[in-house]
Each structure stands twice: as structure tokens, then as C-alpha cells.
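User: Could you check the structure of this?
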Amino acid sequence: MKLGFRGKIYLGFFSLLLIQGLVIFFWVSHVVKGSMLEELKNRGISIGISLSARMVEPILVMDFLRMKVLVDETVQLGDDIFYTFVLDEEENPLIHTFKHGFPVELRWQTLF
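Assistant: Sure, the predicted C-alpha cells are below.
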């Protein structure tokens, strides 16, 4: 099929618009992804600060039952929170919400 001059112009404009649309789509998705990740990090920091403020007294008196209740509440309140743990000054877990024990790999990741 032979295209006339007008068809070639239309095809050129359509190609440019398609390329521009794809570039804008990828740029917008990159920006949105970055802002969503930043928002999730800020939310995690906020939850951590709130939990640490409530954990001061139970840690000082070593009330493990109250610590367990606080970390369980934190997991239950957030739909996207799957586990919570508290480490002491030597990076040993004091309390956690894992069902099968504290994962050793996670402990080594928190050290570095």
C-alpha cells in the first residue's frame, strides 16, 4: 500500500505522539514510584517512633508480656505490617511477632 504525502505526514505525527506518550508514561511512573516509596518509608519511620515511645517503660522494667501486646497491636493495626521486632543494645531480639522464631538472616541484616 502506497501512502501519499498526507498519509506520510499523518503517520509521522502519529509516531511522534506515540513516542512522546510512552516517554511521558515512563517518566510519570518513575516519579510516582519514587514518591510512593518515600511515603512508605516515612510511614514506617512514624510507626517505629510511635512503637519505641510506647516501649520505653516495658523495656525498662523488662515486662515481656506488655512488650508482646504492644508489638502484636502494631501488627494488627496495620494491614501492610507483617512482623515487628525489638532489639536490645547488643542487637539481640527482645520480642518479636514471628511464628517460628526470629530469623537469623534478619538479625545479621540489622547489624549492617
